[in-house]
Amino acid sequence: MVVKPEWLRVKAPQWQRVGSVKEILRDLALNTVCEEASCPNIGECFQAGTATFLIMGPACTRACPYCDIDFEKKPQALDPTESLRLAEAVRRLNLNHVVITSVNRDDLSDGGASQFQRCIEEIREISPKTTIEVLIPDLCGNWQALELILAARPEVLNHNTETIPRLYRRVRPQGDYRRSLELLQRTRQIAPHIYTKSGVMVGLGETDAEVREVMEDLRKVDCDILTIGQYLQPSQKHLGVKEFVTPQQFDAWREFGEAIGFLQVVSSPLTRSSYHAEEVRKLMKKYPRGK
Questions:
Q1: What is the spatial distance between Cα 218 and Cα 197, in angstroms, rounded to a whole number?
Q2: What is the CATH number of domain 12-286?
Q3: Nearest to 161, CA basis, from 206, 116, 118, 120
Q4: b/e map of 71-98 (b: 16 or more CB within 10 Å)?
Q5: For 198-220, what is the mean pLDDT?
Q6: β-strand pairing of 31-32 with 52-55
Q7: Does residue 276 have a pLDDT over 50?
Q8: Could you tell me what percentage of the chain is helix, strand and coil, using 3-state DSSP and rounding each to the nearest 5?
Q9: Where are the domains of the chain?
Q10: String of DSSP letters for 201-252
Q11: Average pLDDT, the chain
Q12: Half-sphere exposure of 113 (CA within 13 A, CB side)
């Protein structure tokens, strides 16, 4: 049995608050990546009244060996009421910032872009002051689908590179490193007013130099925000952890990222793509973009 180091232990949450968030999610029949992907920060986020919503799921069309989201179930037809229920959850939770992500839906011609668009529009209608972040799949390189999402004007467009190029075949076999970079680059070109964001997992066998190369690649496509966190094995059937990276190394990556021009680098063992995502509101005030 692998023993986690002290820095990966999380405090027990106040389950009364967690339960109230879960009750809203169950009442509205919504999925969250917090639950589906076994996020270690679920207690902290639910206790704070936040969640990262998982649309078009929970079944995924890809089988990434690091991810705990189910890929064995058959994806269902899109639910036209999902966007309405999601907007109602944002209202009930009184969210200042909401993160919307999805499973991969390679079975759909637009990869699910139209569902992202509907969700953004419904939230704008019911909660106009809420800032919106979308964490999207690569859409199989369908750039017209990307334009559809960007036309709905989310404040943040997040797409994770996940790992270093050398490990893609093992970690993200249906993904493409260059395609992910192109998605972020096209976002900047099409919608320069939208903040771009990406995330990387570590502890899978990458070197410090390889992580820094990914960070430099992301800056070359003018990515604004980066998250770096420790990979944790969801179960014995998933990829194993090669290394528990020290907090000092995470600090070094944060300092390097800030030095090469990222507006924000969130780098720590427990960091995940949407961890403390609401802090982007402070960044938007400090580094405003034109509309």
A1: 9
A2: 3.20.20.70
A3: 206
A4: beeebeebeeebbbbbbbbbebbebebb
A5: 97
A6: antiparallel
A7: yes
A8: 40, 15, 45
A9: 12-286
A10: EESSS--HHHHHHHHHHHHHTT--EEEEEE----STTSPPP-----HHHHHH
A11: 87
A12: 20
Structure tokens at 75: 């994806």
Q: How far apart are CA 20 and CA 7, in angstroms?
A: 28
pLDDT band at 23 (very low <50, low <70, confident <90, very high): confident
Across 72-81, average pLDDT: 87
Instruction: Enter the tokens of residue 113.
Output: 């872009």
CA distance 169 to 176: 9
CB 105 within 8 A of CB 61: yes
Q: In terms of Cα–Cα distance, which of 245, 248, 241, 173 is closest to 204?
A: 241
Backbone angles phi, psi at 97, to 5 degrees: -140, 135
The label of the residue with tokens 């998250």 reads 227
CA distance 236 to 252: 31
Threshold 0.85, pTM exceeds = yes
| Torsion sign, CA atoms 212, 252, 278, 9 | positive
Tokens linked to 12: 């027990």
The length of the chain, given as a count of residues? 291
